[in-house]
Amino acid sequence: MGDKAHAHTGAAGRATTADRPSSVRNVVLVGHSGSGKTTLVEALALTAGAVNRAGRVEDGATVSDYDEIEHRQQRSVQLSLVPVEWDGHKINLLDTPGYADFVGELRAGLRAADAALFVVSAAQEPEAVAGTTRAVWEECAAVGMPRAIVVTHLDTARTSFDEMTRICGEIFGGEDPDAVLPLYLPVLGPEAPDGHAPLTGLTGLLTQRIFDYSSGERQEKPPAGTQQTMLQEARARLIEGIIAESEDETLMDRYLGGAGIDVPTLVDDLERAVARGSFHPVLPAAPAADARQGIGTVEILDLITGGFPTPPERPLPDVTPLHGAPRPVLTCAPEGPLVAEVVKTASDPYVGRVSLVRVFSGTLRPDETVHVFGHGLSDPGHETRPFHEAEVRVGALSSPFGKQQRPLTACIAGDLACVAKLGSAETGDTLSTQDGPLLMDPWTAPDPLLPLAIEAHSKADEDKLSQGLARLVAEDPTMRLEQNQDTRQVVLWCLGEAHQEVALDRLHNRYGVRVDAVPHKVSLRETFAAPSSGHGRHVKQSGGHGQYAICDVDVEPLPPGSGIEFVDKVVGGAVPRQFVPSVEKGVRAQASRGVASGHPLVDVRITLRDGKSHSVDSSDAAFQTAGALALREAAAGTRIQLLEPVDEVQVLVPDDYVGPVMSDLSGRRGRVIGTEQSGPGRTLVRAEVPELEIGRYAIDLRSLSHGTGRFDRAYARHEAMPAQLAERIREHQGDGLNDT
User: Smallest Cα–Cα separation from 300: which of 279, 314, 286?
Assistant: First the structure.
């Protein structure tokens, strides 16, 4: 790698195609927000000849960030695909957002890819690298995905490639820091007055050659004598790391015995170690918008084509047959049975719904009818997307290049393509043949835990709201729609504030629906604090048949979770048999409306003790009203206790943040139940916390743990609210004070 001359093999303006799976490389770029992923993709596309000039993120002119919302917010918010050609290979570059709120787009990129480039900025603090980036690294490690690291922003003052490489070794290498080592070293130019030396080239540790970019073109040179000592030390450590991680015992014996090892043999071992996911080379890079070849881009493309695995070399996701059919043996072969998956769903104002599809087996062709089976994505907290299946005719195929759609005649196994108008297919759905439908195991989508309550801005918006919300949720599996029957609110559950902003922006600008954000309310309850009795009298006479119903009830509290229990103890026919159900219906209706502050009444036994009726004027409606009046009078005669929902919360954080997290939970009226180790250096904190106190916990935990913590929540029960807080809510009749 790194010692060959290259031509720009891409061709701007036409679809990049693949004729066999072994010529495809699917690579996802991962990194913290601001690390330079989009700029790097632009530089790689320029070097490969896929674009004629590099766009700038600041100008909104890059291939990856093409959505209007990305231009307005000046950040990536969605997964984008940029295919390029290099040395006869098709490279699908999957650019992902770096902000934690858009981790759903990142998960889609991981599903579609076979290898990952982790982009870290030499100008960032170590905490930024160690946050969400480390979590994604661990996800990749769990499935053995090959990974390499690219260090950017080395042209920034007071940055150090050596220091960032050391930090990456500590963060990503874990117990084996020699698994994370530089493949190239930066070559620095003359020192500027501010003390910063610009990056002018790279030194290949295996080839022991310098690749000089100072003239604007890549030129190969031998190293100077002053560089030999540093070069030999770094090269020896690299060789030892490669041989150890490739588990080539014969080569290790030769190396330890002092025998010379030729570069092609070392490159073969490097490729083997990288492909098996055990060795992670570090490469310096300085993409430049005004240069034909950014520093390091050729070397990165070489690593992708030579060191990253082909689709046939990666295991396929688990597949389940449907309807008891036998499962075929699946391989990544164009002639095999079709198995593909929708990894992303988007809406185009002119085309409609567009599905980005990864083909794992077989060949996807336009105008063919396929079986679509959907289960949604694996969501640990909620079942929001029911199973669905249909026979759908495939529309036009295209190869996306940013916002451009370049026509394709077919998409073979291992490749990616966009499909227009794929029926109601959603992210995570499986496409397979009609005669042998299959279902791929889903990947896990994070549970959205930040609520956004919304209302239509006008009557015209109200008419379009349900359709707009349905399309929004179908596109984004990390967004959950709730129609809360208790609070009568429409709630969008999101991953963070930036996620909320994107949701509101898309509703307005993409679907033409204006909404207003309103305070989110939790589902409070009421119960009787002590036994009480009530008398309900509903007697009216206004000509003709009147209304006559009288009933007496006793109300007593029950243990939590008991609900409403109705008991009939009327004797002597004081309330005729046919009207007892009417009384029950009336008290249950009143209980659902609440008796004090408008929240449902629960956990009481209501006993119908006595009453009176009239042979002519009594009716079902009259006894319903009397029952409701009796319950309200009983409530007026005792203290009504307000109940609040309590969630069981599990917070996973690095050990360093356990103390602050526990202190913060206690400050939220939480009860810490216990802690337990959850892998090296991480602790799971379990607590019970009132829902009123954790409405914004998704944001607060991210700040408290510098982006390294995550949590889950599940409803546990309702329990009595502190008297002082309950009184405040009663005073305001639940208007605004029960908001999170």
Answer: 286
For the record, the structure tokens of 495 come out as 């991953």
Give the pLDDT confidence score for residue 381 in this predicted structure.
44
**Structure-token match 């105008």, residue found:** 367
Cβ atoms of 479 and 449 closer than 8 Å: no
Strand, helix or coil at 15?
Answer: coil
Over residues 167-177, the pLDDT tens digits come to 899 888 877 87
DSSP string, 558-613: --TT--EEEEE---TTSS-GGGHHHHHHHHHHHHHH-SSSSS-B-SEEEEEEEEE-
Q: Shortest CA distance to 80 belongs to which of 400, 472, 297, 427?
A: 400
Q: State pTM to two decimals.
A: 0.86
CA 3 from centre of chain = 39
Q: What is the gyration radius of the CA atoms in the chain, in angstroms?
A: 32
Longest CA–CA span in the chain (Å) reads: 115
Compute the distance between CA of residue 172 and CA of residue 136 in angstroms, rounded to an integer.
10
CA–CA separation, 12 and 48 (whole Å) = 9
State the pairing for strand pair 416-420/411-412: unpaired
Determine the average pLDDT of the residues in 517-537. 95
669 pLDDT tier (thresholds 50, 70, 90): very high
Helix or strand (DSSP H, E) at 463: helix 459-475
The residue type of 111 is R
Q: From 293, 218, 400, select the one nearest 45 (Cα to Cα).
A: 293
| Among the listed residues 111, 119, 131, 114, the one whose alpha carbon sits nearest the alpha carbon of residue 39 | 119
Q: Is 556 helix (H, G, I), strand (E, B) or coil?
A: strand
Question: From edge to edge, which strands make up the β-sheet containing 404-408?
Answer: 388-393, 369-374, 430-432, 339-348, 352-361, 416-420, 397-401, 404-408
Q: Which amino acid is at 60?
A: G
* In contact, 25 and 87? CB cutoff 8 Å: no
Q: Report the SS3 class of residue 444.
A: strand
Grade residue 292 by pLDDT with cuts at 50, 70 and 90: low
Confidence at 448, pLDDT banded by 50, 70, 90: very high
- pLDDT, residue 194, reads 63
Q: What is the DSSP letter of 657?
A: G
Distance in angstroms (rounded) separating the CA atoms of residues 286 and 293:
10
Cβ atoms of 74 and 56 within 8 Å: the answer is no
Tokens of 154: 């080395």
Whether the per-residue pLDDT at 40 is higher than 80: the answer is yes
Estimate the crossing angle of helix 658-667 against helix 697-704, to 10 degrees: 150
| Residues 449, 253: Cα–Cα separation, whole Å | 54
Token pair in block for residue 624: 């319903």
| Nearest by Cα to 35 from 103, 138, 117, 110 | 117
Beta strand spans in 54-114 (E): 80-86, 89-95
Which letter does DSSP use for residue 691 in this model?
G
> Tens of pLDDT along 682-716?
899 999 999 999 999 999 999 999 888 999 999 99
Strand order in the sheet with 532-540: 532-540, 547-557, 604-612, 564-568
10-19, 116-125, 341-350 — most confident range: 116-125
Cβ count within 10 A of residue 467:
11
Count of helix runs (H) and strand runs (E) in the chain? 17, 36
**CA 665 to CA 685: how far, in whole Å?**
10
Specify whether the CB–CB gap between 234 and 225 falls below 8 A.
Answer: no
Which among 82, 45, 21, 116 has a CA at the least distance from the CA of 308?
A: 116
Among candidates 687, 693, 665, 683, which has minimal Cα distance to 674? 687
Which pair of structure tokens corresponds to residue 531? 């036994």
Q: What angle do CA 635, 636, 638 make, to 5 degrees?
A: 70
The residue to which tokens 């041989």 are assigned = 243
Residue 504 has pLDDT above 80, yes or no: yes
Tell me how far apart the alpha carbons of residues 241 and 56 are, in angstroms, rounded to a whole number.
Answer: 37
Among residues 302, 281, 45, the alpha carbon closest in space to that of 185 is found at 281
**Phi, psi of 222, rounded to the nearest 5 degrees:** -80, 155
